[in-house]
Structures are given as C-alpha cells and as structure tokens.
UniProtKB/TrEMBL annotation, chain A:
Record InterPro entries: CcmF_C (IPR032523), Cyt_c_assembly (IPR002541), Cyt_c_biogenesis (IPR003567), Cyt_c_biogenesis_CcmF (IPR003568)
Pfam families: CcmF_C, Cytochrom_C_asm
Entry keywords, A to Z: Cell inner membrane, Cell membrane, Cytochrome c-type biogenesis, Membrane, Transmembrane, Transmembrane helix
Function: Required for the biogenesis of c-type cytochromes. Possible subunit of a heme lyase.
Family classification: Belongs to the CcmF/CycK/Ccl1/NrfE/CcsA family.
Localization in the cell: Cell inner membrane
Protein source organism: Sulfitobacter litoralis
Membrane topology field: Multi-pass membrane protein
Domain Cytochrome c-type biogenesis protein CcmF C-terminal residues, every copy: 315-645
Superkingdom of the organism of origin: Bacteria
Span of domain Cytochrome c assembly protein: 89-296
First-listed, main subcellular location of the protein, grouped into a coarse class: membrane
Stretches that traverse the bilayer: 6-26, 47-72, 96-114, 126-148, 175-195, 207-229, 249-265, 274-292, 312-331, 352-374, 394-413, 425-442, 448-465, 495-516, 623-643
Protein name: Cytochrome c-type biogenesis protein CcmF
TrEMBL record, chain B:
Domain of life: Bacteria
Function: Possible subunit of a heme lyase.
Signal peptide: 1-21
Alphabetically ordered keywords of this record: Heme, Iron, Membrane, Metal-binding, Signal, Transmembrane, Transmembrane helix
Pfam families, alphabetized: CcmH
Protein name per Swiss-Prot or TrEMBL: Cytochrome c-type biogenesis protein
Xref: Gene3D superfamilies: Cytochrome C biogenesis protein
Similarity remark: Belongs to the CcmH/CycL/Ccl2/NrfF family.
Organism: Sulfitobacter litoralis
From TrEMBL, chain C:
Protein name: Cytochrome c-type biogenesis protein CcmH
Signal peptide from the UniProt entry: none
Pfam families in alphabetical order: TPR_16 (PF13432), TPR_CcmH_CycH (PF23914)
Record-linked PROSITE patterns: TPR (PS50005)
TPR repeats: 153-186, 333-366
Organism: Sulfitobacter litoralis
Acyltransferase keyword on record: no
InterPro entries hit by this protein: C-type_cytochrome_biogenesis, Cyt_c_biogenesis_CcmI, TPR-like_helical_dom_sf, TPR_CcmH_CycH, TPR_rpt
Subcellular location, record wording: Cell envelope
Superkingdom field: Bacteria
UniProt cross-references to NCBIfam families, sorted A to Z: cytochro_ccmI
Keywords attached to this entry: Cytochrome c-type biogenesis, Repeat, TPR repeat
Length: 666, 158, 385
C-alpha cells in the first residue's frame, strides 16, 4: 500500500506541476493576482507530494519491502540501516526521484522564503521551474518508475554495491544534486527575466541567495565526492578527471563565474545579458551532466543503444530546455544591454577577465570530456583524454586566474589608479617570491610548476588577507576601531575573504599532495618495518573480523617516529558475501602536515597468506587535509555572503488599487 | 542461465576492484628507473578500464603493460622511446594525453581559440565601455523626482 | 482502504492548491516598486561606504548619480505597469480539480493497487517455511540418492516439483531426469520434465525437451501440457501455423471448461497475431449448456501458471538491470557474455549480437586460447553477426 501511495503522490505531483506550468504564467501576463499566487500553493503541493513519495520509497527500503523492484535490486535485508536509507537514492530511479525532490525543494523555497521578490517575477520563475519539473516527473513515471512492483516478492534483495557502503558516498549524491539542481532555480529566474524583459540590479540581488545556496552545496558535493574517492578507492588520489567528476565540476566553474558576473549586474547594472547567459548555461551543464551519467553514454557510445528509451527521453528534455532557453535568449537579450561604464583598469574589467578565464576553463573540461565521445560517434576513432591532458590545459588557465584573484578585490569600481594598487601589493609580491624560493630551498625535489603554484597560493592568501586588513584599517587605527569596522562591514565582504582564503588553503593541499607524495609498495610479513617520510611502520599481521554484512581481513600497523609511538592503523579488505565482492578500506592518519595512508592489497600469493605475507601500500601525502579545510572555508564563505542583510531587501507590499479589476491589465 | 547468477554478475560488473595496483614484484630495484616507470604509467591508459591509468589499475592488461614499460626501461630506452613503442603496438587509444594530430586539433586548440575569441570580445567591451566619461550632475528636475521617490520610500517604511 | 488513502491525498492536494482563495488580502508587490526599494537601499549603502572611507566622496557622488538616474528611469516606467486584478476564481477551481483527475488517469495506467506492501519483518513465516522446505528437500535428496534401488519415482517427482516451486529449474530437471527412463514414467512425468527444461532455458525448447515432449505425447496424445509445449516448440522452430492449429485443435477436443484453456487461448492468440489469424476466445470452445462457472483469474493464478509470466517479467527486469550496470561499467567481459546469452535466450538477437560484439572488443587483448574468445565467436556466428 505504501509503495502505491508513493506512486500516486508522484502522479499528483506531475499534475500539479502541469497546472503550475500554465496558470501562474498566464496570471503574470494578465496581472491576475490569484493565478500568480497559485504558483506558491502548487509549489508547496509539489514539495509535499514528492516528499511523500520519497518517504514512501525510503520506507520501502528501510523495511526491505521486496515487492518493490527497486528495493530488490538495490538492497538486502542484512544491510546496515544507514545504507538501507542511502539505497533510496542508490539506483537510477531513486536518484531521479531525489533529483525532482530537490527541484521541488528549491521551488518551494522560493515560494516560501522569496517574500522580497515581486509577485509577477516570482510567479513566472516558479512556472518555469514547473516546466522542468513536468519534464522530469514524466520522465520518472514513464521510463524509470521507482515504484515498479514484483509479486510474489523474492525472498531477499541483491544488495547495493558494497563500494557504495560508505558514509561519504551515501551523502554524496544528495549534496551533488542539491548543487546541480539548485542551479535550476537560477535558470528559472533567468528565463522569467527574459520573458518579463527586465534585468536590473534588483533582479541580481533577488537571485543571489539562490545562486549562493546552489554553489555552496555543489562545492560541498564535489569536495565530499573527492574525499570519498580518496578514502575509499585506495589509490590515495582525490581527483581523477573522471567524466563523472568532470560533469559536476563544469557547472561549478560556470556557476562561480555567474556568482561573480552577477555582482557586476547588481552594482553597476552591466553584464546583464552575460549574467543571464551564464545562468542558462550553468543549468544546461547540470542537465548535460545528468544526461551523460544517466544515459550510459559516458562509458561507451554503444551502451546508449542498450537502453535507448531513457537516453532519448533525456536527450529530448535537454534539447528542449537548452534549445528553448537559448532561442528565447537570442530573441530577448539584445534589448537588455546598457549599464554603467568602466575603464580597462577597474573592478568590472577584473571580473570580466575572471569570467573569461572561468568560461575557458569550463570549455576545456567540456571538450576534454565530450571530445572522445563525439570523435568516436563521428569518425569511429577512439582516443583517450585523461589527467595529463587536463593538467596540461586546465592548470595554465587557473594559475593566472588565482593571480588575478589576489589583485581583483583591490580594484575599485569604474576606474582604478593602478599605481596605488601596485604600491600596496609590491611588498606581497616580493614576499611571495621569497616564499617560493624558500620552499624550493627546503624541499628541492618536485617539478618547477609545483613551486610556482605554492608561490601563487601564498600570493592569494596574503593578498586576500591584506585586502581585508585595508578594509578594517587594521593597525592604522586603534584595535577597537578595527573591530568595530569589521563588524560593520557587509557580511558578503567577509564571505569573499573567507572563500578566497579557502581556495588558497585548498591549493596548498592540491600542490602538496600531488608533487611531494611518497609511496611504498612492498611485501610484508609480521614484524616487517617500512620506512616512509620519517615514520617507521611495523606490520603486526592480519586477523579476521566480522562486520554486519561482511567479513574482513584486518591488518595491524604500528606507526612510530624516531622510536616514539605515533598511532596504530587498521587497513581492511572486506568481503561482502551477498554481493560476492570485495572492497578496500584504507586506514589513514590525518594531520595538518600530511596523511599517512595505508591500504592492504592481496595476500602476497595464494599459499603465502598462510605464512602471513601480504602486499601493503603505504603513502605519505603532505597537506591533503588542507584540501578539505579549504573547501569547508569556501562553503562557509558562501554562507557568510548568504547571511548578508542586503539580500533580503525587496518588495514592499501595497494595497492594489481596485479589488475587482475593472479593466484588463494591458 | 540462472537469474541469481545474472544478478551476481550484474553487481560484480559495477565494481572497479578497489585496491593498490602496482605490486611489489614489479618494482624495479633502481629507484630512478622505477620513478620513471611510474611517471610513464601515469600517462598510459588501462585499455579495458574507464579512464584509468595503468598505474592505478589492477587489470591483467595493465599489469602486462607495466611490466612491458619496465622491461623497455631496463634495456635502456628513453621515456619517449618507451611511450612510442607502446603507442605503436596499441594505438593512440593507449595515451591518456591524446597526441596532437588532425583528429585532435579541435580538442587541443579549442581552449586557446576560445580564450582568443573571448579575449577579443573582452577588449571590445573594454573599448566600448572605455573612456572615463564625467558623470553629469542631476538637473533640478531630476533632483526633484529623486527627492519625491526617497520621500515616498521613507513613508513606506513607517 | 488504499482508495481511501488516495482520496485523502487527492483532497489534501486540492486543498493546498486552493489556498490562494483563502488569502484574499489584495496586496501585491509590484516589480518596479520593488526595484525602486532595492535601488534606494543601494544609495544608503553608498553613503555608508563613504562614511567608512572605503570609497572617496567623489566616487560616492558619481555612484549615487548613476543609481539616481536609474531610479528616475524606473519611475518613468512605473505608469505603464502595475495593474493587478483578483478575479479568475473559476479557473483556479478548475485547475485544482484537474489535478486529481490527471493523476488518477495516470495512476490507472501505471499503478498496481492490488499488490500489497510486504515488509521483510512480516515474512518470518515465509522464511521459516522456506528454510523448512529447503531442509526437507535436502533430506529427501539425500534419501533418494542413498537408495540402492534408485529411489521411488514419486519421491524424485516430489523433489522435482518442489525445486520448480523454489525456482530452481535446473535442479528440478536433474531430479526428474532420474526417473524419465523408467517403465512407470507417465506422460505427465515427461511433460513436467519438459517444463523444467524449458524453464531452465528461460522459455526456449531445447532438443532434449523436444524429445521428452514427443514421448509424452506418444504416451498420452491428449496431455494438455505436452500439447502446449509441443506448440511452443513448433512456433520456435518456425512452424507458427502448425502450432496455432495444434492449440486450436486441442481446445476443440476439450470436454468442458478446463483451467488450462485460458492459457491455451492466450498462446494461440499470441501466435495467431503474428500470422494473421482471427483471435479466439475460451467461450467459443465451451458449449453454453454444460458450462459451470468460468475459472477466474485467481484460480488460474493458483494453478501457478500465472506466476510463470510474472517470473518472465522478473527475469526481464533482471536482464535490464544487468544491461544498465554494464552501461555504467562496460569493461566487464563476463557480464557482457551473460547479457548476450540472456538476450539470446529471450530471443532478442539484435541486442544479443550487440552484447557479444562488445564482448569481442573487450576480449581482443585476451590470450588466443582463452575459451571465452571461442564462445564469443560461436555465439556471433550463430546470431549471424
């Protein structure tokens, strides 16, 4: 009964979305207040209904109701509860249900909390959001029904991929989707503005909080995914330029560009059509990501043919959404130009260059990800585009961007006296050079690019902090005055400082762990000692342990440094009998300076396992922790900006002139 | 064909076996050569995996390739010679960094081209917007309108 | 009960959708007026920035003029917009009531309201039973195998039928295989054995099964199960017309309403559709006078014939699941082989060929003498690829 309720709720949600696609849009065109307001109630209805549906599916997973096909395929009665819950979004169908749930959350979010947004804009935005919702709900119900039933039910389910039984990954899709799908509301705002024919500073302000929320959760999602890969895959890497990672990274890059160009639209009324275009493209990339991951296109062009129905449906949705919005853009945007003037040395120009670099970086990732697919489809040639390509093309674009990030905040709007800026930064530039040389002097090894990157990261860190001290006049005025200034500074300003510092810190991690990692791969027997990065790691043997739905070989490693005991590590190799598969659980000792990372590979040979000989892989990755710390700071910076008072300024409600409109609106 | 086997196969199919890939018996004694081998391994694709290099992969093919790389290195090949040798045998698909050839011109040049086009666009915008035009003061009529707007806004607030 | 719940849910939706009617206060935020408020706030912000010394007074002045100009422009557009009306209640009612109607229509197409939800915890009995059956079958198997006489015929058949019910078709076939050569092997035994073989092959009649069917029909030409599988075998061998004739002929022989007739009719119509025969119905074959009530669907389901269809659907979905997973990780050679075989058995040769072709590409790097290479070659040549 509960699964059927979920399905019926989904059907109701689709119907509500259909109504919401039409009525508020008409209302906005005719000035009909009642119809406009219906957007609010149907958004809430959609959220409630999809929420019920999601809970119904989740309950089916929690109680292991094997009359639901999705549960049979993706769960098992023996699975730990947490992962039963996570199984809800572990499958294609479930993850799409989560997708539409998040779509509904953002729609209802604007309906409930967007009280500063004028009625017509809100109605149009929610109507556009309902178009997307209609497309995806029908896709879900017609091609990927999460509530397909089996009767009589099989006795037990088939488990979820044990590799996915990890807290990081359980949380990863929801967060990534939150970011991905969050950009839908920004898209809806953009399309609504195009329909309305008005983009101005006020529009930029009303959209900003939603862009920030989407950006923050996408940042969190990417960081968490990276953390998961690092923790679970057992290779000690945190970014592989895998297509799945790339499709989440592209909306992030473009979304970051959007965040910055919208500032210009807000402050100077310029870059309007560019901001709109970015909003459209960012969500288009999110859709593209969903399409690529969900159609199977990614792995091979042939896989697409195995199940063309779903692939074609999403492709159709993609074509309508992107094609339609770009056509609308081409039609309406040209009328939107104008805005404040500025000189080549100004905040505006700086942000323009920022956008150029970010857009180019996005294009690089897009080309690298799609090119092999397109080439194979067109000519049949197979090529590989992997990390070496991305490192060769992406890094040269990003390094100048980071240099610019240090300078940008010092530029003032309209026109800047470059001399003054240089005077302030001269000292920092020297400091950065010295720091780079000092790093080289201490470490000696590693590529030149690594030293350059360290120097640039130091530059960003110092320049950002310097800009902050200028703002609060630290040391120029008494401390109490500085504190008062810091308090009075808009939150968004602190947010920017925090996010930029976060990136600088994460950069230390990126560089440190890639350029200076050390690795040992050895056969070990109980008592063997491995020396790595100043640590002595003693292998004490392997024992069998039992988990809730797996058995594991657990190695014990005693780590010491110069004779002093440091810690004990327990890397595991788990076997999941139901799923008939194995995973590696690395053991990591994380410190600020670096991570000691141990993973247990096979017994050295079939017979040798009796003698306790194993293959052990030990890595020392300097500064990895900085990556996670930097990411958290970036997210926190976004949160600070979000709390800025100015984002809530908006629509004063006035009594309308006549209760019963005597004349039609136009 | 029993469906249970089918399901087991289906689940196993989704598993990249997660484990360290390079095995100790492959490691060369000479640390310099080994470091070079690791470097080369990072730019070669494991042919049967999804965008994975042979250094990380534990597939049999990857191991064979790793051993081949080391064998060539110990016979005194330079890094380029090793890569060329493998490329000759397995085709361009084996290179994670696609070679610069007619089929990949677009791939390699697109970012630069976009940057160039974008750059020209940016310069265009800066030119158009350039000029430090002096902002005219508001005339009296305009001042009056602004004052009215501000007054009515203030009234709203109360 | 479930319909009450649905009605409640639909009512809740309509109530939420009608909410705007309740909020009748005629206030609205106009787009232009809101923009004015934001711009005025920006003016204040500039004053503050100037106060803090973040921008010079010159800069502040210029920035303010810029915003003031925009304010004036806004003020000028104000007169052309900002009309609101509050009518249109009818349309709101209509659209709110449309929601349950549309949803109901959709649900009728997609839902299975009669399938109950069965939490795992409620199935203890079933599990216990299952465990008991498994234990009993194990013991039975042991006893039969240990019997120097070769075990009773009834014993082997019971074991085989139990395996059938558990879905272990291959085990069922091998259990029954022990007795089909005996003198007391009846037509029914042979046709059950054939059924097990066909189920093992996911519906394909193998030569072995064909032999068993033929013998069953020799022993009892009226055995409906044997006739049924004979028809399927004929159909699979390309003799759809003979298959159809055979089914209809047997239906015509039926003395009265029989539980198997509906299945025969369904099969005959499936085959008939492909070769352009008129559809038949059970009623045609039952004389009106002696007809006791028609067997209901539930009866048929109880006869366990229906569950074969369910099972087929289930297998189908499992194959799809495998296909999807392979789409995400296409490097699994054995997975592709399984998929190819599954499709071949299901008769979807195009898909099977595709799967084997993918497998062939993956197998390129295997040793020449790897047995999988040979099986891929064989499969592909059988499929004509």
């Amino acid at each position: 009964m509960i699964p059927e309720t979920g399905q019926f709720a989904l059907a109701l949600a689709l119907a509500a979305a259909l109504v919401q696609s039409i009525l508020p849009m008409l209302g906005a065109a005719r000035g009909n207040l009642l119809w406009m307001r219906s957007a609010r109630s149907s958004s809430i209805a959609q959220l409630v209904l999809i929420g019920i549906s999601f809970v119904a599916l989740m309950r089916s997973f929690v109680v292991s109701d094997f009359t639901v096909l999705n549960v049979v395929e993706n769960s098992n009665s023996l699975k730990p509860m947490l992962f039963k819950v996570a199984g809800t979004w572990g499958s294609h169908e479930g993850s799409l249900l989560l997708w539409v749930l998040i779509l509904a959350i953002f729609g209802a979010g604007v309906a409930l909390f967007g009280s500063n947004i004028p009625d017509a804009l809100k109605a149009r935005t929610l109507s556009v959001q309902a178009w997307i919702s209609t497309g995806f709900l029908s896709f879900l119900l017609l091609t990927s029904n999460p509530f397909a039933r089996v009767f009589p039910p099989p006795l037990d389910g088939n488990d979820l991929n044990p590799l996915l039984q990890d807290l990081g990954l359980a949380m990863h899709p929801p967060l990534l989707y939150f970011g991905y799908v969050g950009f839908s509301i920004v898209f809806s705002f953009a399309v609504a503005a195009l329909i309305e024919g008005r983009v101005d500073a006020a529009w930029a302000r009303w959209v900003r909080p939603w862009t920030l929320v989407a950006w923050m959760s996408l940042t969190a999602g990417i960081a968490l995914g990276s953390w998961w890969a690092y923790y679970e895959l057992g290779w000690g890497g945190w970014w592989f330029w895998d297509p799945v990672e790339n499709v989440s990274f592209m909306p992030w890059l473009l979304g970051t560009a959007l965040l910055h160009s919208a500032i210009v639209t807000e402050k100077r009324g310029a870059f309007k059509s560019w901001t709109i275009l970015l909003a459209i493209l960012t969500f288009s990339l999110s859709l593209l990501g969903t399409f690529i991951v969900r159609s199977g296109l990614l792995t091979s062009v042939h896989a697409f043919a195995v199940d063309p129905e779903r692939g074609l449906y999403i492709l159709g949705l993609l074509a309508i959404t992107i094609g339609g919005s770009l056509t609308l853009y081409a039609w309406r945007a040209p009328a939107m130009e104008g805005g404040g003037l500025f000189t080549p040395i100004s905040r505006e120009a700086g942000l323009l260059v920022n956008n150029l670099l970010l857009a180019t970086a996005t294009a690089t990732v897009l080309f690298g990800t799609l090119y092999p697919l397109v080439l194979e489809a067109v000519t049949g040639d197979k090529i590989s585009v992997g990390p070496p390509f991305f490192n060769a093309t992406f890094i040269p674009i990003m390094l100048p961007l980071v240099v610019m990030m240090g300078i940008g905040p010092f530029l003032s709007w309209k026109r800047t006296d470059l001399k003054g800026v240089f005077q302030r930064l001269r000292f920092l530039a020297v400091l950065m050079g010295l720091a780079g040389l000092a790093t080289w002097y201490v470490l000696r090894g590693g590529p030149v690019l690594a030293y350059l990157s360290v120097a640039i990261a130091i530059w960003l860190l110092l320049a950002t902090l310097r800009e902050w001290t200028v703002r609060i006049r630290l040391l120029d005025v008494p401390m109490s005055e500085s504190i008062r200034r810091a308090r009075n500074l808009p939150r968004a300003s602190h947010g920017m400082t925090m996010a930029h510092v976060g990136l600088a810190i994460a950069m230390f991690g990126f560089v440190g762990s890639s350029a200076w990692k050390s690795e040992e791969i050895v056969f070990v027997q109980p008592g063997s000692i491995i020396e790595i990065a100043g640590f002595d790691v003693r292998f004490d043997g392997v024992e069998q342990v039992r988990g809730p739905n797996y058995v594991a070989d657990r190695g014990t490693l005693t780590v010491s440094r110069e004779g002093e005991f440091v810690t004990t590590l327990y890397p595991e190799r788990r076997s999941y009998p139901v799923a008939q598969s194995r995973t590696t659980e690395s053991a990591i000792r994380s410190t600020l300076a670096g991570d000691l990372y141990a993973s247990l590979a096979e017994p050295a040979s079939e017979t040798a396992s009796d003698q306790g000989a194993w293959t052990l892989r030990i890595l020392y990755e300097p500064l990895v922790f900085f990556i996670w710390m930097g990411s958290i700071m970036m997210i926190f910076g976004g949160g600070l900006s979000l709390s800025d008072r100015r984002l809530r300024v908006g629509a004063p409600r006035r009594a309308i002139k006549s209760k019963i409109a005597a004349t039609p609106a136009e | 064909m029993n469906w249970k086997n089918l399901v087991a196969a289906a689940i196993l199919a989704t598993l990249p076996f997660a484990a360290g890939a390079v095995e100790p018996d492959e490691v060369l004694d000479d640390p310099v050569l080994e470091a070079r081998a690791r470097g080369i391994s990072k730019v070669l694709r494991c042919l049967v995996c999804r965008s994975e290099n042979i250094d990380n992969s534990n597939a049999g093919v990857a191991r064979d390739l790793r051993l081949l790389v080391r064998e060539r290195l110990t016979t005194g090949d330079t890094d380029e010679e090793v890569i060329d040798y493998i490329r000759a045998r397995f085709g361009d698909y084996v290179l994670l960094k696609p070679p610069f050839k007619p089929e990949t011109y677009v791939l390699w040049l697109a970012p630069a081209a976009l940057m160039l086009i974008g750059g020209i666009g940016v310069i265009g915008i800066l030119r158009k917007s350039g000029g430090t035009k002096v902002v005219n003061e508001l005339d009296d009529d305009e001042k009056r309108i602004v004052a009215e707007i501000l007054a009515s806004e203030k009234k709203e607030r109360v | 009960m479930i319909w009450v719940l649905f009605a409640g849910l639909a009512a809740l939706t309509v109530i939420i959708m009608l909410d705007p009617l309740r909020r009748s206060e005629a206030v609205a935020a106009d787009r232009i007026a809101s923009a004015v408020t934001v711009h005025v706030d920006q003016l204040r912000e500039i004053d503050k920035d100037a106060e803090r010394g973040l921008i010079s007074t010159e800069e502040a002045k210029a920035a303010k003029v810029e915003i003031e100009r925009r304010l004036i422009a806004l003020e000028r557009t104000k007169s052309t917009t900002g009309h609101f009306e509050t009518g249109g209640r009818g349309a709101l009612w209509l659209s709110a009531l449309m929601v349950p109607l549309i949803a109901g229509a959709l649900y009728i197409q997609l839902g299975s309201p009669r399938i109950p939800g069965v939490p795992f915890a409620d199935r203890k009995e079933e599990r216990v039973e299952e465990a008991q059956i498994a234990e009993l079958t194990g013991r039975l198997l042991e006893r039969l195998q240990g019997d120097p006489e070769g075990g009773q015929t009834e014993g082997w058949m019971l074991l085989g039928q139990t395996y059938m019910r558990m879905g272990e078709y291959a085990d069922a076939a091998s259990a029954m295989e022990n007795v089909i050569g005996r003198d007391d092997a009846t037509s029914a035994i042979l046709s059950q054995y054939a059924q097990a073989l066909v189920a093992t092959e996911n519906g394909i009649v193998s030569p072995k099964a064909r032999t068993a069917i033929r013998r069953a029909r020799e022993l009892d030409p009226t055995n409906p199960a044997a006739t049924f599988y004979e028809a399927i075998a004929l159909d699979q061998a390309g003799g759809s017309e003979q298959a159809h004739d055979l089914l209809v002929a047997r239906l015509e022989q039926a003395a009265g309403p029989e539980p198997w007739m509906e299945l025969f009719v369904a099969q005959a119509n499936r085959i008939g559709e492909a070769i352009g025969r008129e559809p038949v119905s059970v009623a045609t074959f039952i004389s009106a006078t002696d007809a006791p009530p028609k067997p209901t669907r539930e009866d048929l389901a109880a006869a366990s014939e229906m569950s074969v269809e369910d099972r087929a659907a289930f297998i189908r979905s499992m194959v799809d699941g495998l296909a999807n997973r392979l789409a995400e990780d296409p490097d699994d050679l054995d997975g592709w082989l399984s998929l190819g075989n599954a499709y071949r058995v299901l008769g979807e040769t195009d898909k099977a060929r595709q799967a084997f072709e993918t497998a062939e590409a993956l197998a390129k790097n295997l040793a020449l003498d790897d047995p999988r290479k040979r099986s891929i070659r064989e499969a592909l040549s059988n499929l004509g690829g």
